[in-house]
Amino acid sequence: MWLCARVVRPAVASSAQWRHNLKGTSKVVVFTLNRFAQRLDSLHSRAARSLLILLVIALSSCANDGSTEQPDSSAVAFVGVNVLAMAETGVVLEDQTVIVQGDRITAIEPRGSVDVSPQTVQISGRGKYLMPGLADMHVHLEYFDDPAILQLFLANGVTTVRNMDGRPYILEWKRKIAQTDLLGLVIYTAGPLLDGDPPLRPDNTVVRSPAEARAAVMDQYSSGYDFIKVYTNLSFEAYAEILVAAAEYGLPVAGHLPNDVNLIEVFERGGQSAIEHLGDYAESIEAVDSPFTEGWHWSKRFLGMPMNADRARSVIERQVMADVWTVPTIV
What we know:
With 331 residues, this protein is an alpha/beta fold. Helices cover 24% and strands 20% of the residues. It is globular, with a radius of gyration of 24 Å.
């Protein structure tokens, strides 16, 4: 989605109209490209909601403003821009032309060394910087009921979020974004948290048995959520059935380590693709002589308690073999 001093959407304006409107703005423009965006058939497609790579601020107006040819709306060239490649720390590729065709970056070359079709939408990036869109892998959109919050992500270069506690209205945001009716970004969202009885939070979905666990997974699959999030007070039996049912429906499982489940069991059993907090590792790597072994302490949330190096090494090796991800969620 294109953002200007006022919003100009290619889904409702021709390329010529867009360029004319851009010239009338204060020339403060934010562009974002999501490298995870789906196949882009034209700027009217789903990926129009987050087409670009980055934040480019105070950008000049598009090149070729006097052209009478209709630009190719599926191709965009950023001309003379400095690229933060993110392949090596501190590397900046200066004065580059970056061409985006559909959902692929097809060229990153020094300006003047690559031919740009007259039908390509050209944007001058002289003196500006281009970088890949960022992904925030642990957010809680359920704390906000106004979709305007999504624009704050875009304004800071975040073009993908992984939402960890779903709501029906977040699915509605996704639908509107896909139809270009809402300015937003790519949202991958869990369903409402699946928890035991009593739930750790009152708005969690309580599952008391394997049958209830399977029904909850089926309901979230039918609703259109992207993955399942498990939570702290799930029983071992309910947790195990969630893993089985989610696999049958093709839904990834992520979340907390339930109190009834050992960390090594998660790795050996398989089925949970990510653990969302470092604190869930504490008991498995804590030193025997730690003063906090008898209970919870705030330091364990950040692995600030005394640790046993051999136990930690064993956990890491098992996790690598199990192909389970860690989302530290320190901040």
